[in-house]
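Priority: medium. Attachment 1 of 2:
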């Protein structure tokens, strides 16, 4: 968790410096498009500050009021960042429309473009680093902040191309068109982050993660794991909570059932590389399970095995045994 805080502090301090660069570029050029980029940098700074707080809070241990921990705060961080980006997009579009009727004279364009190019390179490098570290640390907050910085660098690149065209042609309206285009792009980026955060807060299924868990179970399944169904995965920041039903031979005693469940727990925690809490409901097998059961020398088998069933997400997520497969 200390590494996550350190990365966010890098982002926060860098964001403040780059914000000053961009506003300086706007003050010397009076370019509405450059102001667009500068306004978005304010969002970067505020979002990084809240991201630092959310990572600090999510690292706190579980307590009586938060039995599942504090990891959900990361989705609030993403929601705030998306909301700020969306508001910034609205302000940018509004300013561009205003300048259609009340244009400003642009000057010192080359100097402003140079400063802007520097900020774009720094944002892209830092954003790429944060996405890579966010994936390795399984931190949604760091990945969201990194993607935001990359989006900022892409918009800066597009802005530079447009400003170069403006410099070569002298057509002042290009500045307004650039600002409008970037404003709508920023609105869309904010919407995507808002959508992601709401999905996380409402425990929307993460099919990539579910597929990963199911693949691990399929590749390491034991004969005694007759089927797995009603599997659900919830993410709480840097932790996962998985619950499912597992069908085991009905002649296993309680000690044996506990051993099997513990093996699944250890397997998932080892392979997924995220701290995972599992709640496994053990179901006894029924005669209808025999036609796909792999147990050898079963003392209660009512019919021979006839089919092999491959576990995949659609099958394992269903809330019923695999009788009709």
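Attachment 2 of 2:
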């Amino acid at each position: 968790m200390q590494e996550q805080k350190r990365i966010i502090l890098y982002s926060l301090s860098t964001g403040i410096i780059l914000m000053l660069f961009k506003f300086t570029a706007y003050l010397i050029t009076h370019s509405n498009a450059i102001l667009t980029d500068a306004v978005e940098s304010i969002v970067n700074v505020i979002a990084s500050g809240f991201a630092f707080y959310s990572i600090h809070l999510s690292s706190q241990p579980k307590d009586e009021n938060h039995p599942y921990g504090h990891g959900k705060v990361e989705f609030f961080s993403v929601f705030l960042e998306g909301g700020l980006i969306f508001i910034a997009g609205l302000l940018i579009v509004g300013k561009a429309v205003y300048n259609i009727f009340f244009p400003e004279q642009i000057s010192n364009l080359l100097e402003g473009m140079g400063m802007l190019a520097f900020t774009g390179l720094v944002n892209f490098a830092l954003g790429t680093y944060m996405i890579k570290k966010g994936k390795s640390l399984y931190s949604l907050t760091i990945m969201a902040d990194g993607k935001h910085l990359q989006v900022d660098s892409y918009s800066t690149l597009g802005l530079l191309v447009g400003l170069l065209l403006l410099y070569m042609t002298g057509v002042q309206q290009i500045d307004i068109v650039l600002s409008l285009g970037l404003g709508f792009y920023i609105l869309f980026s904010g919407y995507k982050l808002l959508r992601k955060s709401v999905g996380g807060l409402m425990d929307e299924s993460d099919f990539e993660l579910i597929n990963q868990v199911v693949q691990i179970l399929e590749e390491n399944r034991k004969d005694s794991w007759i089927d797995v169904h009603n599997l659900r995965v919830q993410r709480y920041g840097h932790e996962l909570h998985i619950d499912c039903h597992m069908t085991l031979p009905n002649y296993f005693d309680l000690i044996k059932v506990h051993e099997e469940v513990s093996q699944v727990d250890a397997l998932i925690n080892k392979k997924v590389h995220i701290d995972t809490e599992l709640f496994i409901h053990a179901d006894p097998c029924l005669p209808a399970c025999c036609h796909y059961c792999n147990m050898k020398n079963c003392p209660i088998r009512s019919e021979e095995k006839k089919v092999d069933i491959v576990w995949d997400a659609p099958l394992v997520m269903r809330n019923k045994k695999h009788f009709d497969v």
